[in-house]
Amino acid sequence: MQCRFCKTELEHIFIDLINSPASNSFLTKEQLNEPEVFYPLKVYTCSKCFLVQVDEYKKSGAIFNSDYVYYSSFSTSWLEHSRRYVEMMTKRFHFNQHSQVIEIASNDGYLLQYFKQKNIPVLGIEPTANTAKAAEEKGIQSVVDFFGEQLAEKLIHKGIQADLLLGNNVLAHVPDINDFVAGMKIILKPQGVITMEFPHLMQLVGNNQFDTIYHEHFSYLSFHTVKQIFEAHGLEMFDVDEIPTHGGSLRIYAKHKEDNSKPISDNVSVLLKKEADKSMLDINYYNDFQQKALNVKLAFTKFLIEKKEAGKKVAAYGAAAKGNTLLNYCGIKNDLIDFVVDANPYKQNKYLPASHIPVVDELHLKQEKPDYVIIFPWNLKAEITAQLSYIKDWGAKFVIPIPELSFM
């Protein structure tokens, strides 16, 4: 296997999470008696460019199909994050009714709706037809397709180019990262701005976030590596923000290399130095991650077995992809966790892949009154613990399994 950026042979295993189905392949009741397809989930580190990457066993077209169940608008904190982003970008770069904003992986229009409210022209690019339809219903024009050089060429032939090209949590999802970044170079106006947000590899390693690894995420990114990839395609970083979303993410700002209208922020060199000081440019930095994950597996399964033996009822909140990674790596089934609550009606009345834990609405939680509620999307724990604070009325506790088992 070769590195998907620099084509170096990959020999260094970052972590092996064994086998699991695609994390968002929820099951209907009828499918519970049918065979499930499991794919290897082994992640490698490139010894040359330090791109951490999963082998592409699960094809992107099979993951992001018309039944994709992730809708961004069901998280209030994510909506607020998006609204603040739109305010900040509009103020900083003076976008107006003459600008063109294009979002790659626009999902259900969760973010573009805020630009639209300001009468700034928007276009969404979204490969999943059902979420794109939800965006169209909000009045947001959407192209149902995967982004890359070919689509970029099609759009510029229609006279469509971006003053702002953005993508939140998509850069890690693309199997051909060279084609993707080359497409951004094509569709960006001469003085246009690119922003991309993605989980920071430094936080993943430092905070033991192995549950953020799943087949939909082909790459796990440092600033150093992303800067290399963009430069290889004629794009230059001119700023970067460290932001708290998804357990610690980066928001990068890029421009055409030949665009001299934007000064390079000191943030760029500061973050590069921070990563170097953490030894992220040394292959040994990536060595101990397997053991960290195993420690979580042992503690989490021990907790569940002990509570089952004591006759306690354990439920979970958030039918998130990261929860499925954790469950499948630990080998946990529906005999140890009774149900998982999720606000997304597209997930309710279905079952988690492999573990077959039923997904229910919040009313079920209030009726069953479990002793423990595991929070799978730990990045939203403040939002979730506030929303479900009433479980304290019957003496229940919240359980956070990552970065180590803790209780609230």
TrEMBL record:
**Which spans of this chain does the record mark as coiled coil?**
none
Print the keywords alphabetically. Answer: Methyltransferase, Transferase
Name the Gene Ontology biological process terms: methylation
Residues of the Methyltransferase putative zinc binding domain: 3-64
Q: Which InterPro entries match?
A: Methyltransf_Zn-bd_dom_put (IPR013630), Methyltransf_Zn-bd_dom_put_sf (IPR038576), MeTrfase_14 (IPR013691), SAM-dependent_MTases_sf (IPR029063)
Which is a Pfam family this sequence falls into?
A: Methyltransf_14
**Molecular-function annotations in GO:** methyltransferase activity
Checking PANTHER family in the record gives: BLL5978 PROTEIN, TRANS-ACONITATE 2-METHYLTRANSFERASE-RELATED
What name has this protein been given in UniProt?
Methyltransferase domain-containing protein
